[in-house]
């Protein structure tokens, strides 16, 4: 009898944890999808690759820099997202749906066709596109709770590596620190900075808390400090010297830091007409 009680005490938390992790993975697989945009620059075809998340089964939220090149300012001529990705007998397969870059707005929606994107101003690095047809998706939930430095959060990258079929894991990312970022209107658009495995192609990835709520979206990540962006923010007093120093110190151990923007800012500024 004592052995039975011990079994329940020790094993039950493990089972509960596995179920929670599985539920978050199910949510992420349903909401977060790979995104590709096509460009023609001086007669040459180019492509940007990132991530994003589904809203109401008919909209796709991602980073604006994926449809407007930070290097030359060129605009995407078409874009699509993939879903139901799988590797079948050594062949990478997926379903896809094209996205309408400039669609007819509904009442109260932010007009991204008139959106001004500044590569140094991360509060502008956001866009919502419309799917050509609806797909089934678990509805996004957005957190209202406080985000804590040192806590773990979940990010989800491209589901498959196309050449090998390797499945990317959910990354248990550690919050390094939070700093207030002020946009040109003076609104706070907090950046959450993570120590993360996320790399190239992760722009637009939603970041989840342990409840499966989206807390932020990945905008930038590297193992070297983005000095041009940081100096721009410092000169504009969008961040202070202590924030600037903290960020630079975060790279001393050659860690990869990922910058994500507070989802509550995105809701207040851009998403109000797309999620309600």
What name is given to the CATH topology of the largest domain? Thrombin, subunit H
CATH class of the largest domain: Mainly Beta
Strand line-up of the largest beta sheet? 1-2-3-6-5-4
Radius of gyration: 20 Å
User: What is the CATH architecture descriptor of the largest domain?
Assistant: Beta Barrel
Number of domains: 2
Low-confidence stretches: 1-19
Outline the structure in words.
There is one protein chain. The chain is of the alpha+beta class and 276 residues long. It has two domains: 31-131, Thrombin, subunit H, CATH 2.40.10; 152-271, Thrombin, subunit H (Beta Barrel), CATH 2.40.10. 21% of the residues lie in helices and 33% in strands. It has helices at residues 2-31, 227-235, 241-249, 263-271, and strands spanning 32-41, 44-55, 59-62, 78-88, 91-100, 127-131, 152-156, 170-179, 191-195, 206-208, 214-222, 257-262. The strands form two sheets. Strands 1-2-3-6-5-4 form a six-stranded antiparallel barrel. The chain has a six-stranded antiparallel β-barrel with strand order 7-8-9-12-11-10. Strand 4 and strand 5 (91-100) form a beta hairpin. The longest helix has 30 residues, at 2-31. It is globular. The model is unreliable at 1-19 (pLDDT under 50).
């Amino acid at each position: 009898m004592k052995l039975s009680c011990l079994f329940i005490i020790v094993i039950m938390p493990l089972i509960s944890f596995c179920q929670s992790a599985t539920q978050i993975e199910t949510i992420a697989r349903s909401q977060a999808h790979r995104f590709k945009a096509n460009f023609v620059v001086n007669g040459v075809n180019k492509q940007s690759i990132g991530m994003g998340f589904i809203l109401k089964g008919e909209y796709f939220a991602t980073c604006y820099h994926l449809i407007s090149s930070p290097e030359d300012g060129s605009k995407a001529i078409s874009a699509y997202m993939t879903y139901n990705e799988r590797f079948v007998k050594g062949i990478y397969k997926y379903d896809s749906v094209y996205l309408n870059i400039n669609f007819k707005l509904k009442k109260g929606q932010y007009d991204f066709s008139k959106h001004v994107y500044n590569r140094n101003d991360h509060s502008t690095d956001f866009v919502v596109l419309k799917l050509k047809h609806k797909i089934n998706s678990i509805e996004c939930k957005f957190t209202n709770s406080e985000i804590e430095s040192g806590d773990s959060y979940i990010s989800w990258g491209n589901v498959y590596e196309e050449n090998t079929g390797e499945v990317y894991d959910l990354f248990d990312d550690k919050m390094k620190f939070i700093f207030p970022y002020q946009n040109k209107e003076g609104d706070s658009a907090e950046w959450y900075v993570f120590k993360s495995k996320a790399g190239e192609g992760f722009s637009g990835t939603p970041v989840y808390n342990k409840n499966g709520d989206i807390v932020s979206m990945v905008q930038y990540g590297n193992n070297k400090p983005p000095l041009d962006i940081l100096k721009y923010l410092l000169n504009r007093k969008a961040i202070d010297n202590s924030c600037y120093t903290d960020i630079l110190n975060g790279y001393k151990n050659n860690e990869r830091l990922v910058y994500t923007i507070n989802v509550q800012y995105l809701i207040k500024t851009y998403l109000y007409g797309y999620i309600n």
